[in-house]
Amino acid sequence: MHRRNRWFDGIVMLVLIAAGCLMLLPYLWMVLSSLKSNMEIVSGSHALLPQHPSLEGYRTVLEDAPFGRWFLNSAMTSVVITAATLFTSALAGYIFAKHQFKGQKLLFILILATMMIPFQVVMIPTYLITAKLGLVNHLLAIILPNLVSSYGVFLAKQFIEDIPQDLLDAARIDGAGELRLMVRIIAPLILPMLSALGIFTFMNAWNNYLWPLIILNDESKMTVPLALVYFNGTHMVNYNVVMSAAVLITLPVIAVFLIFQKQFIKGLTMTGMK
To answer: Which positions, given as ranges, span the membrane (predicted)?
Structure first.
């Protein structure tokens, strides 16, 4: 029996390693292609390694375009969206989990229903509202529609429901108000969940492509995902430049995940899902 379990564990490990390699292959291909010349890529060569490695693609991205400005635009919008989402999710989750009010269940169901509506369905109404507010070609047009996350509210509610009510009642007896309860008791207890939600939110905000493409046409207001369109030529695509831009765009997401990896994994395993 012990030998059979070892064989099974070995097979599972091999399957997981193979799956991991397949998942990493596109990223490896992207990095190696960024080191090739455009002629080498379009020539149809299937060689994975570049014949003559070059950083020309990165030089073009960093010197021939305002990539630094786009990077700052993406960083600012992503950080603001992430911070606002964590705040609103924690606050709304606490209200739904620990307070009772008229119409609570109906309101929560309506919030959950928005999770099932694709963005493409509300894209035109959102654009018309944004245009009415005069926010076309403004970074606020990216931030405002993403200040609240229905998934974040749901996740926070599920997690906060597992916090013992006696703990909160004891804090109230000691004179703690609702704000102090949130800051001193609830926030530390839901930190793993907030870390996981924060990483998801930051990744989605950083990689958001469709909405900025629609709402922004001023070059100085572009975000980094739009750089992939900027470097596409009219008659020919500079693939090495596009791959270099894609590598630079991916690096912050990888860095954020590596920094908060432990909190991310802990948050996923402690979401309080029922």
So the answer is: 7-29, 70-94, 106-129, 135-160, 181-203, 241-260
Q: How far apart are CA 214 and CA 82, in angstroms?
A: 21
Say how far apart CA 224 and CA 59 lie, in whole Å: 16
Q: If 0-12 CB within 10 Å is exposed, 13-18 middle and 19+ buried, where does residue 38 land?
A: buried
**Residue at 122: amino acid letter:** V
Which residues on neighbouring strands pair with residue 232, listed in sequence order?
237
The DSSP call for residue 161 is: T
- The answer to whether 270 and 192 have CB atoms below 8 angstroms apart is yes
Nearest C-alpha neighbor of 80 from the set 1, 161, 125, 147: 147
pLDDT digits (tens, 9 = 90+) for 211-270: 999 998 888 889 998 888 887 765 567 888 888 988 999 888 888 888 877 777 776 666
Contact (CB, 8 A) for 164 and 274: no
pLDDT tens digits, residue range 58-69? 998 888 888 889
pTM of the predicted structure, to 2 decimals: 0.83
